[in-house]
Backbone:
């Protein structure tokens, strides 16, 4: 009887704690007045899937989301050349500014590209620093109320992509920018779906001009336990002016929470159109402070 009473008490305390977090007014917290640990939301990440989440980092806290290593291999192009790419330590540093707004910087410190032609002696190598993305996320609703089935969350995520080295073959040559609209819906206690719609203005190379591309994705996630989750995703870019069409990929992967502030992940994207990379596996880690 004593053990049962203890269990009931623990469950009641857990429910009370969750209710306090959901019902708390956190509007007074900001970058230099951080949200107390007792009122922190459950850590959510914008990785490992391509679909961005609508949730922001709590005010005054910083979250690092890093691709430890990623690899991609293209399908052969019209000249039968195949491109292999590696990225290392690409990190999204997310900074909670207010309870519903964050600033993030995404930077790739190092990457390599190898292009193999049909002639085995004709191989091109590039290496160096990748682009810097400056992003803001503004949650419109759902940050602190995404608990019960049927709940929704919506955000706006404008971004600006800046070249760091226009001639290293890793960084893009031109500035690009756009906006993403992330929406999440809680389907059940275990299933969630996140959907993105976006557009970007960009220029591929000196031979092209600025044009508008559209991005769309949907990611279904399942919570196997408090620590383990998985996702299943479809994502595509459209109006890309690519001679082989638009890239569309299918992705899957998992997340594993070591504790409430530390998460491991791994995944793979598989190209389903000729313009998409044939395969793209990766592993990563996320930490909140």
Residues:
């Amino acid at each position: 009887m004593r053990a049962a009473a203890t269990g009931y008490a623990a469950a009641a305390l857990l429910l009370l704690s969750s209710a306090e977090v959901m019902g708390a007014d956190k509007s007074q917290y900001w970058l230099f007045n951080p949200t107390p640990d007792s009122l922190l939301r459950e850590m959510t990440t914008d990785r490992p899937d391509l679909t961005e989440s609508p949730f922001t980092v709590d005010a005054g806290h910083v979250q690092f989301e890093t691709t430890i290593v990623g690899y991609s291999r293209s399908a052969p192009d019209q000249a039968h050349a195949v491109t292999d790419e590696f990225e290392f330590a690409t990190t999204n540093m997310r900074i909670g500014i207010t309870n519903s707004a964050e600033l993030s910087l995404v930077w790739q410190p190092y990457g390599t590209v190898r292009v193999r032609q049909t002639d085995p002696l004709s191989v091109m190598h590039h290496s160096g620093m990748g682009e810097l993305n400056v992003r803001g996320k503004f949650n419109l609703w759902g940050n602190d109320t995404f608990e019960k089935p049927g709940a929704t969350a919506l955000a706006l995520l404008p971004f600006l992509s800046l070249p760091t080295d226009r001639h290293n073959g890793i960084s893009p040559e031109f500035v690009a920018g756009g906006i993403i609209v992330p929406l999440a819906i809680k389907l059940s206690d275990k299933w969630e779906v996140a959907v993105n719609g976006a557009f970007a203005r960009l220029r591929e190379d000196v031979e092209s001009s600025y044009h508008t591309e559209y991005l769309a994705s949907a990611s279904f996630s399942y919570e196997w336990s408090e620590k383990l989750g998985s996702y299943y995703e479809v994502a595509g870019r459209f109006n890309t002016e690519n001679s082989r069409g638009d890239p569309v990929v299918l992705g899957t992967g998992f997340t594993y929470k070591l504790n409430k502030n530390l998460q491991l992940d791994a995944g793979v994207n598989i190209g389903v159109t000729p313009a998409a990379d044939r395969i793209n596996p990766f592993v990563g880690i996320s930490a909140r402070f």
Notes: The chain is about 10% helix and 55% strand.
